[in-house]
Design brief:
By secondary structure, the chain is α/β, with parallel strands linked by helices. It has one domain: Aldolase class I (TIM Barrel, Alpha-Beta Barrel), CATH 3.20.20.70. It has helices at 18-27, 50-59, 78-83, 99-108, 154-168, 185-190, 200-203, 215-226; strands at 5-8, 33-38, 65-70, 88-91, 112-117, 135-139, 173-177, 195-198. It is globular, with a radius of gyration of 16 Å. It binds D-xylitol-5-phosphate (DX5) and zinc ion. Zinc ion (ZN) binds next to strand 2.
Length: 229
């Protein structure tokens, strides 16, 4: 089986007790923490910044933190996230005037870098920077909110991105973000994704007071991935 990673998006977690939510979801078998940063400018919503990332590290979170920047401009905030303990930092090409420079800045800060493609954004931006990225993130909803429906046209785009990665001969993760659920994760994996962001599917699935509240949904997602040929 491929080296699949499940990345709960904390956008749908209970922010009033975020540390415990992250502990629980990791304990239930999640691999990385997806951290959505929105600025009410590049996207029409406002969320969390480096202070919250740092707080999770201070709380004791050891798992990789996957920072998805939906902010414009991006460069100023990158060193702050690196300092705060980010593992991956990904950004949207539309939000940077100098994509190559921004990718370099992420790696120079000691983090893994990635580009994020909105549903209607073509993959052309990858062409000259495949050697500078560690992750390609395809949005399967328009960014800004959790709980939206998966856009099925992105399955073809996943196949396209997977072929580009293969042709490059490089180790680049292929992440999908938006509308990932137990009933479609297998199909998404078969199209080529290896890293799965899921927000509402995970955090809305459980009773808030159950200490093992995320076990069954994580198991259901893993069971589906185990069926992938
Ligand atoms: C949307 C965010 C996603 C979001 C996904 O802009 O990038 O990470 O949390 O939420 P679900 O899994 O509910 O579609
Ligand atoms: Zn995201």
């Amino acid at each position: 089986m491929a080296n699949y990673m499940i990345a709960p998006s904390i956008l749908s977690a209970n922010f009033a007790r975020l540390g415990e939510e992250v502990d629980q979801v990791l304990k239930s078998g999640a691999d990385i923490v997806h951290f959505d940063v929105m600025d009410n400018h590049y996207v029409p919503n406002l969320t969390i910044g480096p202070l919250v990332c740092e707080a999770l590290r201070k709380h004791g979170v050891k798992a990789p933190i996957d920072v998805h920047l939906m902010v414009k401009p991006v460069d100023r905030i990158i060193p702050d996230f690196a300092q705060a303990g980010a593992t991956y930092i990904t950004f949207h090409p539309e939000a940077s005037e100098h994509i190559d420079r921004t990718l370099g800045l992420i790696r120079d800060s000691g983090c893994k870098s990635g580009l994020v493609f909105n549903p209607a954004t073509p993959l052309d931006h990858l062409r000259y920077v495949m050697d500078k990225i560690d992750m390609i993130l395809l949005m399967s909803v328009n960014p800004g909110f959790g709980g939206q429906k998966f856009i099925t046209g992105v399955l073809d785009k996943l196949r396209e991105a997977k072929a580009l990665i293969k042709a490059s001969g490089r180790e680049i993760r292929l992440e999908i973000d938006g509308g990932v659920k137990v009933d479609n994760i297998k199909q998404i994996a078969e199209a080529g994704a290896d890293t799965f962001v899921a927000g509402s599917a995970i955090f809305n699935a459980a009773k808030p007071t159950d200490p093992n509240r995320y076990d069954s949904v994580l198991k259901a997602l893993r069971d589906e991935l185990a069926k992938v040929k």
